[in-house]
Amino acid sequence: MNERRRILLRRLSDSAGYWIVPAVMLAGLALMPGTPWVTLTVAGVAMGVIVFMAAAGMSLVFGLMDVLNFAHGAFITFGAFVAASVFAALGAWARADALPLNLAVVAAALVAASIVAGAVGWFCERVIIRPVYRAHLKQILVTIGALIVAEQIVPVIWGGVPVAVPRPETLKGAFLLGDVAIEKYRVLCIAVGLVIYAAMYAALARTRIGMVIRAGVANREMVQAMGYRIDALFVGLFVAGSALAGFGGVMWAAYNELITASIGNQMMILVFIVIIIGGLGSIPGTFTGALLVGLTTNYVGYLLPKLALGSTLLLMVLVLLWKPRGLFPASGG
Amino acid sequence: MADPLLALDGVHTHLGRYHILQGVDLRVPEGQVTMLLGRNGVGKSTTLRTIMGLWRASQGQVRFDGLAITARPTPDIARLGIAYVPEDMGIFGNLSVRENMVLAARSGELDDGRLRWVFGLFPALQQFWLKTSGTLSGGQKQMLAIARAIIEPRRLIVVDEPSKGLAPAIVDHLAEAFRELKTARTTLLVVEQNLGLAKAIGDTVAVMADGRVIHTGSMADLAADERLQTRLLGLSLESHT
Amino acid sequence: MLDWLLSGERVRSRVLALLLLAVLAGLILAPFVFTGTRSLAVAARIAVFIVLAASYDLLLGYTGIVSFAHAVFFGMGAYGVAIALKNIGPGWAAVFIGGAAGIGCAVVVSFLVGLLSLRVRDIFFAMITLAVASFFLILASQLNTLTGGEDGLTFRVPEWLSPAFRLAEGRVLGVALDGKLITYYLILAAALALFWVLMRVVNSPFGRVLQAIRENDFRAEALGYRVVVYRSIASCISAGTAAASGILMALWLRYTGPDAVLSFDIMIDVLLMLVIGGMGTMYGAVLGAVVLVMAQSYLQDVMRMASEATAAVPLLSAALHPDRWLLWLGAGFVLSVYLFPNGIVGTLRRGRP
Questions:
Q1: Where are the alpha helices (DSSP H) in chain C?
Q2: Chain-centre distance of CA A213, in angstroms?
Q3: What pLDDT score was predicted for residue B1?
Q4: Pairing mode, strands B18-28 and B6-15
Q5: In a domain, B93, yes or no
Q6: C120 pLDDT exceeds 70?
Q7: pLDDT digits (tens, 9 = 90+) for C326-340
Q8: Does chain B have fewer CB atoms within 10 Å around its N or its C terminus?
Q9: Complex ipTM, two decimals?
Q10: Model confidence pLDDT, tens digit, residues A208-221
Q11: Contact between B78 and A226 using a beta-carbon 8 Å cutoff
């Protein structure tokens, strides 16, 4: 019967990516029954999907093309600041007590941010990364340099002080379900995040390009040897990833309601942890990892406040010890 | 004699500081099976990778159907009608067997008749059609790798050690597949350690040593000359049937 | 004699030799030649960062390990001394105990992080060190009873080092023989000694193996060198030396805080120093440290003037504002990676970039 048990444990371990989030949620429920659990879980999932949006592009770019772009945080920062400007420009709509107008403001911010972040991403790929394509060390160095420069450009354009990003009127406050308060804005974040995840998942699973990308993440050389010009695909993927990070920046800006030029960099630690835990190049992995990070931060923040900030690091160490290549490793077996 | 489909002239390949190919001259005649033989480490796999453009030749020329392909990017080389089966099989473990095959069908559609033929050769693939290919056994992965190369007609198929990990019965299927491909005017360049298989399917043979091709000729001639076999390969083809 | 001093790390360039001599002379004569407390502070900072950058060069330039946790070890040395001096009292015993504790911690942590490198690729290792660094940053601000949190710790140094101390009355060449002077020369002497130790390490057979590993770790392993062991030792030496330089910084500042010794700015500064100076050369650390610390201290003044001069063009003026000095340094950094990949030292040695 030892053999049976070993096979079962093996199956359990291999499928960890699927059951770990529900497991953590249940654990949270056991430790914090009732009201706090609902609020914290909503907060955790909302934060998780935002980190997912910030991290997804990087996971694919790194997983497929082996390019590590430390300047990725800049896309998030620009997204956040563009959101601030759009919210301010459409201030009348944001202050109006009408949901459609408020949602329009958010939508406008998302569109503007994705354009700006995408453009910055295109510039980044063309000018900064392309010359140092296969040289890892140089890539790390130039992208760090680019990050420093980007972080300094923000105060030049938007001034050197923290900028307030007030939530639109109807998105302020919370729904009250009995004893439980669920912030309205967080629900919106979750909705946006889930839509994006579903769209990405479908694109990767159902389209031919998606299949090529997934194959490329497992074995880039072989995909090329089968006639697919992955390099041409890369620019598009890079720009899409940066636009998506811009999305994350927008949602994160209104989540925090106050932003500084280092907001993108601060999130980068979480992004790295998420893509390491999730498994490079895997969108389900990034999503799962992001939810884990969001839930852990919020649960631990409530249960053991002193440990809160270190908890994500601990999570990363634990997951790595168990699954060194992440919850959804690219080659699948 | 007609022009060879694939020709290498004085090809050198360096990997970092290592000078692996030191002037490879190779002729792969069209419509035939050319076996590339030699002991371990002489540069057989490197030759195949250089042909496919995965590694850049530092010197010399590779010509396919008269076209110089030496410095071309790998996808462009593949699109000229060349299929490649690497030594590590190159299976996309995170994709299903079906998806691996769909990707291999560059036209986008899997041809039913052709697929039936492939299933006839490798029934396991039909059995595990929707399974994640990473969970297949080594031998099954090898079958998938070869199936991918033959699911559509190609002008040249470059294979690195096809029989590795395959049961003898499947190796027979493999030999049959290669023979059928030959009748369809497909050219094959095969690196193989299984000398029995080499003898069974090879028309032309090229033997490598120290990064060069030191002997070319017909398989029939080599098979008949035991002394030559021992000198070139250190073993006899006879003892490995 | 020269060979022994330089441990065989030949300079290989007249200009470079002159520059290095100028730096050495400048540092030795600083209190007498450059007036004002600020210039002495700059000189002390240069001395400390030469060691810190050189210790990072051992890791990055010679062993090829990309780590972002280096500032943590610097901070450990500084905090070790600070906590000891604060709690035990301003005496040399505290300095030694705290210093040893700081160096010990650094070595242990770097060893543990090194263990992790067995399981992950180098890019992942870099990201993990990033996470580790932020963890310690958080730790320092969280344990505020011990570390003084965000505000840091101010403490008193041993009597001979305190500014009020007088070795003798009167002045030598216009400079008072006070605790500040003694501290400065103590730091300079220690820095030179530490730098010399690092030079010895990289030019020893051990150092040559490290370079072989950096070139091609598979080959080194095949030749019989246990790559993991060498990397761990290099990492520990690097961390320990960084911590030692942290001790020096704490003694000079008489203050330790997350911003001063642990922040990512320090990490970026060290990285910039090596890229600008030239990685894998040791001398690059010297020149890089000089360039960067001087830029930090004096570039802002230049920028202030430029910013005021261009006040009519708001965007340009904002870009030239002294707070944005990192923008220009960052841009220079990116350009130098593309155009001068071997840094100042490499360029001087080759005669061309």
A1: 2-6, 14-33, 37-57, 70-88, 92-116, 122-142, 144-147, 179-202, 205-215, 217-222, 227-253, 264-277, 283-294, 300-309, 314-320, 325-339, 343-350
A2: 19
A3: 52
A4: antiparallel
A5: yes
A6: no
A7: 888 888 888 888 888
A8: N
A9: 0.90
A10: 999 999 999 889 99
A11: yes
C272 to chain A, closest Cα gap in Å = 9
By residue range, what is the domain housing residue C99?
2-282
Question: What integer pLDDT is reported at residue C119 of this predicted model?
Answer: 61
With 50 as the cut, is the pLDDT of residue C32 above it?
A: yes
Chain A residue whose CA is closest to C127: A272
User: How far apart are alpha carbons B95 and A331 in whole angstroms?
Assistant: 8
In a domain, A15, yes or no: no
| pLDDT less than 70: residues of chain A | 1, 309, 331-333
Total structural domains within chain B: 1
Query: Is the distance from CB of B9 to CB of B168 less than 8 angstroms?
Result: no
**CA trace torsion A239, A241, A242, A243 (10° rounding):** 80
Q: Please indicate if any CB of chain B lies within 8 Å of the CB of A231.
A: yes
B148 and chain A: CB distance < 8 Å anywhere? yes
Chain C CB contacts of A140 under 8 Å are 66, 123, 126
Spatial neighbors of B9 by CB under 8 A, at least 6 apart, are B25, B60, B61, B62, B63
pLDDT digits (tens, 9 = 90+) for B8-67: 999 999 887 788 899 999 999 998 999 999 888 888 999 999 999 999 899 999 999 989
Domain that holds residue A79: 36-261
For chain A, what is the domain count? 1
Domain presence at residue A44: yes
A304: contact with B, CB 8 A cutoff: no
User: Minimal Cα–Cα distance from B56 to chain A, Å?
Assistant: 13
Tens of pLDDT along A14-31? 888 888 888 988 888 888
Is residue C231 a part of any domain in this protein? yes
B122 assigned to some structural domain: yes
pLDDT of residue B48: 94
Identify whether the C-beta of residue C106 lies closer than 8 Å to the C-beta of residue C73. yes
Q: Is residue A22 part of a domain?
A: no
Tell me: the pLDDT tens digits for B159-196?
999 888 788 888 888 888 888 888 888 899 999 888 88
Position B108 in a domain:
yes
Instruction: Say how far apart CA B222 and CA C156 lie, in whole Å.
Output: 89
Best interface-test mutation with C: which of A70, A137, A280 has the largest number of C CBs within 10 A?
A: A137
B77 within domain boundaries: no
Angle made by CA atoms C158, C161, C164, in degrees to the nearest 5? 105
In a domain, C305, yes or no: no
C332 within a domain of the structure (yes/no)? no
Tell me how many domains chain C contains. Answer: 1
Neighbours of chain A (3+ CB pairs under 8 A): B, C
Residue C101 and residue C84 in contact, taking contact as beta carbons nearer than 8 Å: yes
Residue B241 pLDDT class (50, 70, 90 cuts): very low
pLDDT surpasses 60 at C353: no
Domain extent for B120: 85-153
